[in-house]
Fold each of these.
Amino acid sequence: MASAFEYAPAPESRSVVDIAPSYGLFIDGEFTEAADGKVFKTVSPSSEEVLSEVAQAGAADVDRAVKAARKAFEKWSALPGSERAKYLFRIARIIQERSRELAVLETLDNGKPIKETRDADLPLVAAHFFYYAGWADKLDHAGYGANPRPLGVAGQVIPWNFPLLMLAWKIAPALATGNTVVLKPAETTPLSALFFADICRQAGLPKGVVNILTGYGDAGAALVAHEDVNKVAFTGSTAVGKAIARQVAGTDKKVTLELGGKGANIVFDDAPVDQAVEGIVTGIFFNQGQVCCAGSRLLVQESVQDEVLDALKRRLSTLRLGDPLDKNTDIGAINSAEQLARITALAETGEAEGAERWTAPCELPSAGYWFAPTLFTDVTQAHTIARDEIFGPVLSVLSFRTPDEAVAKANNSQYGLSAGIWTEKGSRILAVANKLRAGVVWANTFNKFDPTSPFGGYKESGFGREGGRHGLEAYLDVR
Amino acid sequence: MSDNRLSVFKTYKLYVGGKFPRSESGRVYEVTDSKGKWLANAPQSSRKDARDAVVAARKAFGGWSGATAYNRGQILYRVAEMLEGRKDQFVREVADAEGLSKSKAAAVVDAAIDRWVWYAGWTDKIGQVVGGANPVAGPFFNLSTPEPTGVVTVLAPQESSFLGLVSVIAPVIATGNTAVVIASADSPLPALSLGEVLATSDLPGGVVNILSGKTSEIATPLASHQDVNAIDLTGADAALAKELEIAAADNLKRVLRPPVSRHHPEKGAQSAAPSSAVDSDGTADWTADPGTHRLTAFLETKTVWHPTGALGVSGSSY
């Protein structure tokens, strides 16, 4: 389909960010090489350009970082909450000041559109630190008893889909409650966490309170298994989440897991179609669908299926895929070759199992990792693409006739992270929302986030909540 | 009454799906008092009994979790009423099971009855305490509500055969979960008798299912059962607790670890024991204020968003 308007390129300038050729691990307030000297490269997924070379942490570095965090814990946890709060407020302010730089950096390293890093990721990151900063001196009033104590050293492992935002979700509540942190960012997106280390230095945060270990899964596993870690927080795949749950069995480590999802986005026949279509697009194509709470299963009422799908395909044909730094870009790059291969394989499985594939007509750049917005119709509940998390811009469409059938299909999943409801009928929203086994339900909206709003899953989407007053519990010695 | 009248023994049976079956395995084991005197034969549940109990608990979950909190509170209070009327029986059973004097056993039973009353009152309050509106930075209504996790396996404490038992069952069902309970292995009789009380307290069948037998034999299939959502390991020793926690990871059950002291003097953590519910020697004190943690351990938080329709500069959008 020809574009209604031709757009001239409108790239955001890269010059606001200065990426060094190499970075070390951030341990005890200093950047340092890995003990065994190993490094790995991080590339920009939209161009495959090498952005930098970063130190690759091993078990010895994990031990060093945990020791630094342990040493820092005594003083940090003894600080008056009001003083801890001011460090967090400082960090929040510096993030705001440097948000353009961080947005460009995140887009370069992750591949997501600048529109998203600028308008969603970074504002939420700053807001998260602001929110938890305010809790630091109010913990007595949080509903966890008087003078609730921190746990100690928090080992945190985060994914690549929202690198800085996941860091904020982990670090802000941990520090507010008086814990110290060793955080491992994902191997494909290490840079924003290292820039955050610099922000900690600018904020004057005491040494060892935040330690950043770039590296691979083995470093994450060593961190989770370290015997002097008191708290494990993980966001990532359900398979790794289960391995962590086994690893910590029999210990006194407190664990929160935020894992996969296969969110159902339910469109009833009385829904405003145009709004629903925007919600479907936001639900599955935001961040190229690399979102654990994505609305990756569209459940549409049979009587409006054709109308909704026609409108959806029309809308998808107008999405702009390309240079993530371009301010008009809607769909950026897939984060890694590995993830692209996984999405590609699952989409092929969808075809092989008999679902009908439709792909938005758009040109893919020659370099980098790209996948065009795709939807499958004629999907049954038994299909792999209706059950497994694809973590990419692929929507599986199923239909239903009655609200009960919609609820049954929505709940027919090992996961239970998110769900969407589109209808104009208030009682239907509330009744369906009650019956859905999902931690976050968006009614007539989708993929909205806020630091005050608890986030987390039912069933195999994990346990514990991040955000809000609820998010404090994960870092306090309370049960 | 004649001294030479032969008393009528009770056949102790399981409580599953509102009925009182024997173990499908046909097995029983001898239960003795603290001095080794035979009291009764109790059913020795098999893994099939455990699976049947899960089916019953799952079937009951929709109705029980969908009942109003007020209704659940009324029923839990009714349990207290029924117990009050059968107090003598439970005093005798607890005295036998735990080797207590009659007056001490009576105090335990009183505390257990009061615990039902405590949790009866919680059913319609916990939602307000742990849920509420969230002030998001945008034109959205945003509400977090606690919901029951689902089917919960409960390993009742081994020592405290009645007060401990009630203290772990009542919070699980107060919030709308259904329970598969493994009674104290050595002292299962008060638990099996509790089934008879629950059956006459308007509690729907299947909400609480009570099994007796070897704890590890029953708990192992339940810990790995794909249709169980959570497990309370209170009645497990450290080795069994670890084994069950590993099995529970298969479908990411919510795990409540045994209430042992979390002090680790050799470590730098210095994390204090979480509540007064643990004595200095690490054993549970069931007379302490239960707090809310046994309620919240088996709750999920659901957060629902809806646009409010902001009043923009150009007028109303709603």
Amino acid sequence: MKAKFLVPLLLFFGLAGFLAFGLTLNPREVPSPLIDKPAPNFRLARLDQPEQSFALDEMRGQVWLLNVWASWCVACRQEHPLLVRMAEQKLVPVVGLNYKEVRGDGAISTRGMALEAETTMAIERARRWLSDHGNPYQLSVLDIDGRVGIDFGVYGVPETFLIDREGRIRYKHIGPITPESLKTQIMPKVEELRRAG
Amino acid sequence: MKARSKRLMLVGGGVALLFAAVALVLSAFQQNLVFFHTPTEVSEGKAPTGKTFRIGGMVEDGSIAREADGITVRFAITDTAKVIPVTYKGTLPDLFKEGKGAVVQGKLEGGVFRATEVLAKHDENYMPPEAAHAVEQAQKAAQTVSQ
Amino acid sequence: MIPELGHFALILALVLSLVQAVVPLVGAHRNSSALMGVGRPAAQGQFFFILFSYVCLTWAFIQSDFSVQLAASNSHSATPLMYKITGVWGNHEGSLLLWAMSLSLWTVAVTVFSRHLPDAFLARVLGVLGWVSAGFISFTLVTSNPFERLLPAVADGRDLNPLLQDPGMIIHPPLLYMGYVGFSVAFAFAIAALLSGRLDAAWARWSRPWTTIAWVFLTAGIAVGSGWAYYELGWGGWWFWDPVENASFMPWLLGTALMHSLAVTEKRGAFRSWTVLLAIGAFSLSLLGTFLVRSGVITSVHAFATDPKRGLYILALLVIVIGFSLLLYAMRANKLMGGGSFGLVSRETSLLANNVLLTVASASVLLGTLYPLFLDALGLGKISVGPPYFEAVFVPLMTPVVVLMAFGPFLRWKDDDLLAEVRRVAPAFVASVAIGVGSAWAVDHLTWRTALGLSLAAWVVLASLQLLARRLGERAGASAGSRLRSITASWWGMWLAHFGIGIFIIGVTMVGSLDRHVDVKMKEGQHAELAGYTFVFRGAVDADGPNYDAARGNIELIRDGRSLGMLTPEKRVYLAQGMPMTEASLDIGVFRDVYVSLGEQLEDGAWIVSLYYKPFISWIWMGCLLMGVGGVFAAADRRYRRLAARDAAAAVGGRAGAAA
């Protein structure tokens, strides 16, 4: 065997090394700087009873999911049946963060719209959506202007945060939850946190 | 011609070709790579002026406005920390919306980014990775400052 | 029940593929014809089970069985039947199944059409194909099971991505996969030859028609994909240098080199080592393309699966298949040296030069595609490599290829007189440059790129005509009919494919230099002008389809005061995914397309309308068509069948001799 005939093989192994490294750079899996940090606290109006508010502290002692959604979000529609099934099987409590219900919708112009009008519209739209597609949430809160979303580092809908008993964010899932990711990533972490606490 | 010198010419030709090709590829890279910058980097003056580059981020809410001709669009792109105003002449992609991720390519002219291309993903309602990267960087920076 | 049957059939196919991978190879090693004989029925049985499995999956789509995860994610009860059927491969899992099925189809074709091959050689070929097949079927079963159930079922599916709901998408993936996967046959022949240590011209002759047919499929697949992008993406581009396009283009470039290299190996016995390397390379690039598309390493419009586990599996597959082949090559390559000698000026040299250039071009595309990944991996920042890079590299590399392509066929094998040949074609060359520069000036676009493109095209056309004239003049005195008949099909194939390149270059150059585009705001009754055409907006109406809502614009196209008809671009919103889609409308002509698409509707009821004028764009696809037809001619040459019969006779004779 002459050395020069090994050149193609060596070139290929170099390439394969890079590709293997490239696999670790999955662009979808952006590490969140908030992981293992206390979740930013908030107090927001509830979707079912807008006159009442809900604060993150109220979930203390439970392992739960905060799911960011909106009726205009197409990918939410994709994960929604799964959320409904999770709720039926009582897998884990899910709180919905309804994110920029009105102003996030590219089809609606909110210029000149008063906050009250926007809130009323958001409640009406979000409720209709939940009654059409099923309500998997223990409750939903309204983040009309997206401020809480920004605190959480939300840059797209849907996103789901796994929060532990002490109110720390333990995992962030970007994009729609799939049966696969639920089985292999979210639920094992939920079980682990439940055992730990 | 002797077999040896023939072989030499073939090998010499091959090597010359290889060098030419490498030079070609390098110069093409030199001139045509499009770098990617986040809005924060742009506002800190880290982006080149007069050279084409890309910005990724979210289209800021309520920022889309059309000029009277109907063709020129103004909007702003943000990584939640800094905002860069953008102008673009032409048809926007189907999935371009306020509050959604987008990547724009063009040049910076007097504080305004003149986009020649606006990209949104074709196949799903989600963020282009470059845009996600920009927002992520800004989040990290904010985190460091607040600590 | 049916999906479970499909799943079970796929498992059986895996078992058979393993049988096919192991038993014939052992048989070839031990020289046992009983064991070698297992390969053929195993391959055919495997095809039956994969086909059965595929039909089961299609059944789930047609029946809208949304308890199957894949159907729920990629189909909808209101989807038209045609798109229910094509939706099967409009996703990661289904397209893998299609991959496995086309590999199996190729394997069966080998068992049917290669009866003349020596038993041991055929056994090795089937063994190699069996390993590849086992790799892909197990990949499908382990990481991407298409029959995964979704329980309880959802009421309705999410529908197929609207971009894929298009006639072009019905045929593009199967053609492309047949091409991609077809190089596995050339690969298997090369590996079988390396394994047996018998690397003479016979091997090249056997694998030539297979390589050519695979190349025809790949050419057609790429052309259809490009046509789809042109009218479906709504902005009139026909090639984007997108990573996934590059993934199919790289094997095409290397496959083109392989076809030509095989010709030299068959006719002159030279370049054997190089040919083997190209056969491995073309198939490796097909696998690499599959990896890039399926692993999500490169983000692209096409990349739908981004699961690192899948990426890892394909990467492992890649390393095993390619690593093993290249190792085998390194071990056996010294046996491949030598062969027919040739002079510095000969057809061999011209083919070698083109081969090297095509390989370098392929490498430059690979580099451009992977460079962002390299920089990211090294932490040097995020970049994108766009069309300007590829154009800057590709034009200078392809210019000598095209010049040589038209000149090479004039040269004789072995040795020729350069000066005499150059003198012979010099008038055509000078005329081409004059025509190129002249027509660039005539269309009022005298840039060096337009002049170069048109000169090259003129050179290909003129040199091809001269070549034909010379070939016809070879047998002076014979009747015209007998002269025509004396030309072989493979010569016509070469001639047509080369001529097609000339047509293709005209299309690319003209559309690249002269296309016009304008975006305008239009209200009912308003008109706009572009490239001598008048567009009158006659308003927009609702035009809802089975699974989408749409607004349809009516735009009258007028030239010289005469109406050429109504263009009807649409803006659709697909209901299941709420996804907006632009559907362009075209007036297609031989010398130009007029292309219109709708932008968004403004508050005052006006629409943004994009108008395009695309001169000579159909020539791009006409050129591809000629190349494909040329390939079919070349593969259909009677010579292969005659030689096949001779080989078979020799093999039988040899066996009889051995028995005696």
